[in-house]
Amino acid sequence: MERQELSQLIxxxxxxxxxxxxxxxxxxxxxxxxxxxxxDLSVEMLTHCLDGEYMSESGIDCRNYGVLDGIDExxxxxxxxxxxxxxxxxxxxxxxxxxxxxxxxRAMLLGVLGGKKPWSKNEKVKFLCPAPxxxxxxxxxxxxxxxxxxxxxxxxxxxxxxxxxxxxxxxxIKGIWxxxxxxNPEGITCSDEVVKRFANLSPKADDFRxxxxxxxxxxxxxxxxxxxxxxxxxAKKTGKQDMVFMFTSTSKISFPGGGLAVLGASAANIxxxxxxxxxxxxxxxxxxxxxxxxxxxxxxxxxxHMRKHRAIIEPKFAVVLEKxxxxxxxxxxxxxxxxxGGYFISFNGLPGTAKRIVELCRNAGVVLTGxxxxxxxxxxxxxxxxxxxxxxxxxxxxxxxxxxxxxxxKIAACEALLG
Amino acid sequence: MERQELSQLIxxxxxxxxxxxxxxxxxxxxxxxxxxxxxDLSVEMLTHCLDGEYMSESGIDCRNYGVLDGIDExxxxxxxxxxxxxxxxxxxxxxxxxxxxxxxxRAMLLGVLGGKKPWSKNEKVKFLCPAPxxxxxxxxxxxxxxxxxxxxxxxxxxxxxxxxxxxxxxxxIKGIWxxxxxxNPEGITCSDEVVKRFANLSPKADDFRxxxxxxxxxxxxxxxxxxxxxxxxxAKKTGKQDMVFMFTSTSKISFPGGGLAVLGASAANIxxxxxxxxxxxxxxxxxxxxxxxxxxxxxxxxxxHMRKHRAIIEPKFAVVLEKxxxxxxxxxxxxxxxxxGGYFISFNGLPGTAKRIVELCRNAGVVLTGxxxxxxxxxxxxxxxxxxxxxxxxxxxxxxxxxxxxxxxKIAACEALLG
Lengths: 419, 419
Prior knowledge:
Two copies of one chain form a homodimer.
Chain A: H1 3-21, E1 27-29, H2 36-40, H3 44-47, H4 72-82, E2 89-91, H5 96-109, E3 126-131, H6 135-143, E4 147-154, E5 157-158, H7 160-169, E6 173-178, H8 192-199, E7 209-213, H9 231-237, E8 244-249, E9 261-265, H10 267-277, H11 286-296, H12 299-328, E10 334-335, E11 345-349, H13 354-363, E12 366-368, E13 385-388, H14 395-418
Parallel strand pairs in A: 1-12, 3-4, 3-6, 6-7, 7-8
Antiparallel strand pairs in A: 2-9, 4-5, 8-9, 10-11, 11-13
């Protein structure tokens, strides 16, 4: 584009932006929160679910103490989410983030199965962090002083050449994060080849673990959803099953504030984790486990329920994509793609524009996830990536918010190109 | 007693014991679990509580993400339990054990407010453990490799001469456990003087903390309950309020499996803990917090509710005490006293008899808490203390179980005395 065209474009965009700023907007696309209508889908769980039903199928009073790893029916409900067996699962509290944090805290303080010492007894602990990724994963590492090494994403998952080479050469690399399906924020699902390469990693550290956060395993947005190979199954084939920790939750199925968190791993890992976890708690909330088992009945119930979620949020993704297409497709000011599931649309602007776009949006009353948040230490090396979370606002709000967003992209891009 | 008398006594006891063994008993006095009738007191909380009510009083949708430290009405409900203010409390998940474990794990990994380094960066970490005490407190220390130093209990709390002298002289002593009211298992409540001496401790370690587990703060068994001075208030008078971590829960008020855990501390400590905890979770289960706030309404509601618990469990304590009085009072084979609250009756037998008593009971079908469990490392130096938990069995079961227990005491005592 010529300078003159750009000048004209930015002038128009600024005029539009000024007008938008006068509207007193207060819109939030910053977090992957379900909308109230989505939460309404599960409210029966809170009322008629436990009318006189407090006993688990094996005769445990769910109101009382006990059962560290979860009641059978809750396990059975959640096992297919991760593709694990009855002795390969622990049902946790209301937060898979907490399960992940606690798993790392235990590894740091006490060590993992087969490890010779706690991670924290090394001079340093390092994690591989495919990015753009989930800010709260990176924050756990940062809070514990774990050094993060950024690994770029390719079309079908993390750059496995880099991953293989790094883990094979550095004993201080103890873990890697991965959201394998509909990744946060890129919406990428790991290809079969990538999963197999994960399952076949040969880390120098004998206490290395893959943190496989399958948060969006049933969160499809299309009739032809992505498919993901089962990492634990693949790892069993290579005899490396103890290298795998898998996580998921019902936070975006039932309630973010009151769902079930799930940890999946080899039977040996689960036994070992239970032997450590027994000092932390007598058991998680079994009443909530029973609620979920009664309400959803089985995995088919969850899948059916997710279709209702899809009906609510698919139009929201559509608005975002339509606006991006309409306003920006012809301009080469950034790239994005339509995810087949998950909670985000990832926008990659011109280098050096992400912070500016977020700032412009904020000043016009539209809150986005902070630029850089999707990278370790909050530092996007190219200042390009912005995570758009379309689920919480209404379609009308999203339409307005995307108007602001696209206008901000135009201004920021023109500013960058005009220098 | 003459040898002849003892021989006669043990012969009779053994005959009685053999007869009891033929009855195929299966009774459990091992854990402080509420009975089903106690759990029934709160079942309304699980059904009609949340009919269309999901918003907190400040307009937070309790179903969704957010609110790290708890919704206002849950805080207000629990603040009087510990005697703390709105900025001195965090409402946790369903387990105060977990809050305690996590607090120590954070101190080990990250350090406490004002500490120069994480506890784990010391060559060693030590805790003072008043004993007999709560086995799960000691187990947390043991699991983390924290060296435990046993401090004896006196009539009005831990031996404070010893506590003061130890903490003042050893920088590696980073904490002390205390169940200040109706202690587990002795039922002792700390006197005002003991609380004041706690509040005025001058530890050599600048990152020392008192773990004040006020689990039985409203669990009275009499019209003239014990009273406990507020440790945090006392510590404020000495400017040492950051030395205090207080815990309680509704586990034995509402549901052990689905109650609310509570952490109380100075506002500065709470701010600091929240800054660390924010990496672990986005928030605990606010729906359960709302349930509790709606069901109990306020602290008076909790107190009223605890009177109903008392009505159920007081007769159980009475059976245990009656049996002990009737069978053993005249024999000098052990001591015990009637607690004014809490969940246990503590029996101190002749030295060297506790393990034998527990073994005899087990062989007759009566499960007791393992002998030694009330001491660090499971080692009762005199092999004397047995914790009796009367709440879970029925009155009839307790009567039978205590018949076994008293018979076992007689046999073990006679064996010890006969040599």
